[in-house]
Specification:
The protein has about 110 residues and is an alpha+beta fold. It has a 3-stranded antiparallel beta sheet, with no helix packed on it.
Length: about 110
Protein backbone atom coordinates (compact mmCIF):
# COMPACT_ATOMS: atom_id res chain seq x y z
CA UNK A 1 0.00 0.00 0.00
CA UNK A 2 1.13 3.49 -0.81
CA UNK A 3 0.50 6.24 1.76
CA UNK A 4 -0.82 9.50 0.29
CA UNK A 5 -1.12 12.84 2.06
CA UNK A 6 -2.47 16.07 0.56
CA UNK A 7 -3.41 19.61 1.59
CA UNK A 8 -6.37 21.81 0.67
CA UNK A 9 -7.73 25.02 2.21
CA UNK A 10 -11.31 25.30 3.46
CA UNK A 11 -12.82 28.78 3.62
CA UNK A 12 -12.89 29.93 7.26
CA UNK A 13 -16.51 31.05 7.03
CA UNK A 14 -17.53 27.54 5.92
CA UNK A 15 -15.63 25.47 8.51
CA UNK A 16 -18.65 24.55 10.62
CA UNK A 17 -20.71 23.50 7.62
CA UNK A 18 -17.76 21.54 6.21
CA UNK A 19 -17.50 19.61 9.49
CA UNK A 20 -21.26 18.96 9.46
CA UNK A 21 -21.15 17.60 5.91
CA UNK A 22 -18.39 15.18 6.84
CA UNK A 23 -20.20 14.00 9.95
CA UNK A 24 -22.77 12.46 7.61
CA UNK A 25 -21.09 11.50 4.32
CA UNK A 26 -23.50 9.87 1.87
CA UNK A 27 -23.38 6.06 2.17
CA UNK A 28 -23.02 5.72 -1.61
CA UNK A 29 -19.97 8.03 -1.49
CA UNK A 30 -18.39 5.90 1.22
CA UNK A 31 -19.07 2.75 -0.79
CA UNK A 32 -17.60 4.31 -3.95
CA UNK A 33 -14.42 5.34 -2.13
CA UNK A 34 -13.92 1.83 -0.75
CA UNK A 35 -14.69 0.18 -4.10
CA UNK A 36 -12.25 2.56 -5.84
CA UNK A 37 -9.33 1.57 -3.64
CA UNK A 38 -9.32 4.35 -1.02
CA UNK A 39 -8.38 2.80 2.34
CA UNK A 40 -7.69 4.19 5.79
CA UNK A 41 -8.87 7.61 4.52
CA UNK A 42 -8.87 10.47 7.03
CA UNK A 43 -9.34 14.23 6.87
CA UNK A 44 -7.89 16.56 9.51
CA UNK A 45 -9.01 20.19 9.72
CA UNK A 46 -7.15 23.01 11.42
CA UNK A 47 -9.03 26.07 12.75
CA UNK A 48 -7.56 28.31 10.01
CA UNK A 49 -9.02 26.01 7.34
CA UNK A 50 -5.95 23.95 6.48
CA UNK A 51 -7.22 20.51 5.52
CA UNK A 52 -4.87 17.53 5.62
CA UNK A 53 -6.00 14.38 3.88
CA UNK A 54 -4.43 10.96 4.32
CA UNK A 55 -5.21 7.67 2.60
CA UNK A 56 -3.65 4.39 1.66
CA UNK A 57 -4.06 2.85 -1.78
CA UNK A 58 -2.31 0.53 -4.19
CA UNK A 59 -2.31 3.15 -6.98
CA UNK A 60 -3.41 6.73 -6.24
CA UNK A 61 -3.88 7.70 -9.90
CA UNK A 62 -6.04 4.62 -10.50
CA UNK A 63 -8.05 5.29 -7.32
CA UNK A 64 -8.67 8.89 -8.42
CA UNK A 65 -9.63 7.75 -11.91
CA UNK A 66 -12.05 5.16 -10.55
CA UNK A 67 -13.74 7.79 -8.38
CA UNK A 68 -13.90 10.25 -11.28
CA UNK A 69 -15.93 7.67 -13.21
CA UNK A 70 -18.69 7.60 -10.57
CA UNK A 71 -21.80 9.74 -10.60
CA UNK A 72 -21.80 10.10 -6.82
CA UNK A 73 -18.31 11.62 -6.88
CA UNK A 74 -19.34 14.20 -9.49
CA UNK A 75 -22.28 15.23 -7.28
CA UNK A 76 -20.17 15.31 -4.10
CA UNK A 77 -17.36 17.33 -5.70
CA UNK A 78 -19.83 19.86 -7.12
CA UNK A 79 -21.34 20.35 -3.66
CA UNK A 80 -17.95 20.56 -1.92
CA UNK A 81 -16.17 22.92 -4.35
CA UNK A 82 -17.60 26.14 -2.82
CA UNK A 83 -16.04 25.21 0.54
CA UNK A 84 -12.48 25.52 -0.77
CA UNK A 85 -10.05 28.32 -1.56
CA UNK A 86 -7.75 28.43 -4.59
CA UNK A 87 -9.15 25.60 -6.70
CA UNK A 88 -8.66 27.64 -9.89
CA UNK A 89 -11.70 26.08 -11.54
CA UNK A 90 -10.83 22.52 -10.57
CA UNK A 91 -12.95 20.24 -8.41
CA UNK A 92 -11.50 19.52 -4.95
CA UNK A 93 -10.46 15.98 -5.88
CA UNK A 94 -8.64 17.34 -8.94
CA UNK A 95 -6.76 19.90 -6.82
CA UNK A 96 -5.24 17.30 -4.48
CA UNK A 97 -1.48 17.18 -4.96
CA UNK A 98 0.23 14.46 -2.92
CA UNK A 99 3.02 15.55 -0.61
CA UNK A 100 6.37 13.81 -0.78
CA UNK A 101 6.89 11.44 2.11
CA UNK A 102 10.26 12.05 3.74
CA UNK A 103 9.95 9.78 6.79
CA UNK A 104 7.86 6.85 7.99
CA UNK A 105 8.21 4.87 11.22
CA UNK A 106 6.99 1.36 10.52
Amino acid sequence: MKRVCFLLKVRRERLDEYRERHADVWPEMLAALSASGWHNYSLFLREDGLLVGYLETEDFAAAQEAMAATDVNARWQAEMAPFFEALDGAQPDEAMRPLTEVFHLD
